[in-house]
Amino acid sequence: MLITRVLRLVVAGAVCVALAGCDQPKQRTDIADLGFIVKDMNGQEVKLSDYRGRPLIVNFWFVNCPPCRQEVPAFVDLVKKYGDRGFTVLGLSVQDSPEVMQAFAAEFKVNYPLFEAQGRDDIAEAYRATFAYPVSWFVRRDGTVFLKHLGTGTPEWFEKQVLAILEESVP
Known about the structure:
There is one protein chain. This protein is of the alpha/beta class. It contains five helices and seven strands. Strands 2-1-5-4-3-6-7 form a seven-stranded mixed sheet, with helices on one face. Helix 2 crosses helix 5. The N terminus is likely disordered.
């Protein structure tokens, strides 16, 4: 019984630490780390740094995650709406093979890049995406982090955050 209580306290403490800073707009001094090379869903190596200078959502997800699947249509719509302003989503799958991502992208008409992040603890740790999914970082053009978010949101909520990283007002 005592061990169970102690374990619960340890887990609760770990959750608090893991979530520290989530859903909080960040000061402009917090810079997103785009210094990684990953493989896209077609097996091609891509430098995340190629996306510097663009407003981004860096999203950690996987196909069999119901909340992850729920937010994809909103991401697709946001890229359609704001892609001409440089906005995109970088989808980093923490579990899926390229074939699984390709099938998913075709089914959901994904219009943003999907990358393999399975086994990439270096990236997951840099983005504090090791505990639960989805995790999304909203990044301004200058690389500063506006918001770190654990979980999903409504399409309207996502649009409000995208407009903030585009530094525009909400319609």
